[in-house]
């Protein structure tokens, strides 16, 4: 089983790869962010994508959304330290096969990978119930602009990164600020991150 692992923390990425390769059936290719994963997915096929949610550049959820946009049905499992309702809801909407917290036992991770590979969906009941929390008011474009603003980029830099006009970016950020009842873009990003919407 060919597994593509995307995890930005070097120590954890290496430890997970070594742990998974203890399984005779697993062959792991590990990368440090979603952009590197996209590059590999353009050239190779894998059986499972195992990804963190928060990574620099392309996040885990953005990576899975990219797969779906390109009609790639690759089975995916998210491993994360965050059990926020917004993350869980977005993962479910993207038809993620598994959602697991990083503090879960290693044998549970192996079990989830096998089950997702067989076509099952494995999401902890408590996590699924959390997904019934607050509704995410942000559009995908507002979320992308706000995420880049949170990284410290100016409106002009965000516009360049997203290939849009600066005025359009200001509109997206203004809408996000308004929807979240925030004082400014920094406050909006803070609120969105706390909710798991960013």
Overall tally of domains? 2
Would you tell me which CATH topology of the largest domain applies? Rossmann fold
Total beta strand runs: 6
What is the CA-based Rg, rounded?
Answer: 17 Å
CATH architecture of the largest domain: 3-Layer(aba) Sandwich
**What would you give as the CATH superfamily of the largest domain?**
Response regulator
Structural class: alpha/beta
Keywords: DNA-binding, Phosphoprotein
Pfam families: GerE, Response_reg
InterPro entries: CheY-like_superfamily, Sig_transdc_resp-reg_C-effctor, Sig_transdc_resp-reg_receiver, Tscrpt_reg_LuxR_C, WalR-like, WH-like_DNA-bd_sf
Domain Response regulatory: 2-117
Q: What are the main properties of this structure?
A:
198 residues, alpha/beta, Rossmann fold, Arc Repressor Mutant, subunit A, 2 domains, six-stranded parallel β-sheet, globular, Tscrpt_reg_LuxR_C, Response regulator transcription factor, Sig_transdc_resp-reg_receiver, DNA-binding, CheY-like_superfamily
Describe the protein's architecture and organization.
It holds the Pfam family Response_reg. InterPro entries: CheY-like_superfamily, Sig_transdc_resp-reg_C-effctor, Sig_transdc_resp-reg_receiver, Tscrpt_reg_LuxR_C, WalR-like, WH-like_DNA-bd_sf. This is Response regulator transcription factor. With 198 residues, this protein is an alpha/beta fold. Helix content is 52%, strand content 13%. The chain has ten helices and six strands. A six-stranded parallel β-sheet has the order 2-1-3-4-5-6. β3 (48-51), α3 and β4 form a beta-alpha-beta unit. The chain is globular and about 55 Å long. The chain starts with a strand and ends with a helix. 36% of the residues are buried.
């Amino acid at each position: 089983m060919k597994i593509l692992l995307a995890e930005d923390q070097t120590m954890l990425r290496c430890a997970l790869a070594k742990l998974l390769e203890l399984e005779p059936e697993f062959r792991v290719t590990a990368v440090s962010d979603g952009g590197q994963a996209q590059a590999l997915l353009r050239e190779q096929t894998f059986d499972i994508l195992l990804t963190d949610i928060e990574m620099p550049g392309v996040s885990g959820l953005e990576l899975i959304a990219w797969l779906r946009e390109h009609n790639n049905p690759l089975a995916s499992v998210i491993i994360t330290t965050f059990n926020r309702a917004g993350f869980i809801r977005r993962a479910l909407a993207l038809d993620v096969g598994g959602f697991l917290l990083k503090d879960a036992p290693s044998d549970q991770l192996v079990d989830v990978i096998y089950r997702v590979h067989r076509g099952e969906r494995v999401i902890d009941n408590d996590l699924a119930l959390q997904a019934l929390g607050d509704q995410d008011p942000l559009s995908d474009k507002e979320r992308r602009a706000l995420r880049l603003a949170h990284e410290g980029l100016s409106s002009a830099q965000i516009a360049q990164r997203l290939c849009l006009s600066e005025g359009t970016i200001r509109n997206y950020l203004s809408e996000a600020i308004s929807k979240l009842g925030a004082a400014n873009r920094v406050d909006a990003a803070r609120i969105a991150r706390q909710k798991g919407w960013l």
